[in-house]
Amino acid sequence: MEAVSINWLSVLVAAISAFMVGGIWYGPLFGKAWMSAFNFTEEELAKRNMGMVFGEAFLLSLIAAINLEMFLGPEASIGFGTAAGFAAGLGWVGTFLGILYLFEHRSLKAWAVNAGYCTVALTVMGVVLGAW
Q1: Domain-embedded: residue 2
Q2: Interatomic CA distance for residues 117 and 124, integer angstroms
Q3: d(Cα 106, Cα 92) in Å, to the nearest integer?
Q4: 39, part of any domain
Q5: Is residue 3 part of a domain?
Q6: Of 35, 42, 82, 106, which is least packed with CB atoms within 10 Å of its CB?
Q7: Residue span of the structural domain in which 75 resides
């Protein structure tokens, strides 16, 4: 079994990129749609410990970036990274979210917002990881 080669700088940048995509996605782009789909209010969201939420979200983004880096391998190109990130986002995460949302009776709108974020974030991660 070969040792896995990980470019830690690209993993860190990829994790940051997903975190930034999330800030834009759930902020100015689709923040209101997300709140509506899950019946959140501004007041309810303001009560959360955002330091903890952001810290844990970044940690999970870092784990996702490590996982994608290991999947892509050290010889990945930007094209393969982009395609693999997109496939992981829509083909794996998006479809499994769809299954869960069907059983949980969640709306298509909720799925579209969350699966869309996963697809874009993993695609951008794939670009970053494939470029380095």
Answers
A1: no
A2: 11
A3: 18
A4: yes
A5: no
A6: 42
A7: 8-131
Whether pLDDT at 114 is above 70 = yes
Count of structural domains within the chain: 1
What is the distance between the alpha carbons of residues 126 and 16, in angstroms, rounded to a whole number? 13
d(CA 85, CA 124): 7
Does residue 122 or residue 132 have the better pLDDT? 122
| Contact assessment for residue 33 and residue 103, using Cβ atoms and an 8 Å cutoff | no
Taking residues 75-84, report their average pLDDT. 96
Give CA–CA dist 120/21, Å, rounded: 8
> What confidence tens digit (pLDDT) does each residue in 6-22 have?
999 999 999 999 999 99
Helix (H, G, I), strand (E, B) or coil at 87: helix
Pick from 116, 127, 125, 120: nearest CA to 82: 127
C-alpha dist (Å) from residue 66 to 5, 34, 36, 89, 100? 11, 27, 32, 15, 25
Half-sphere exposure of 52 (CA within 13 A, CB side): 4
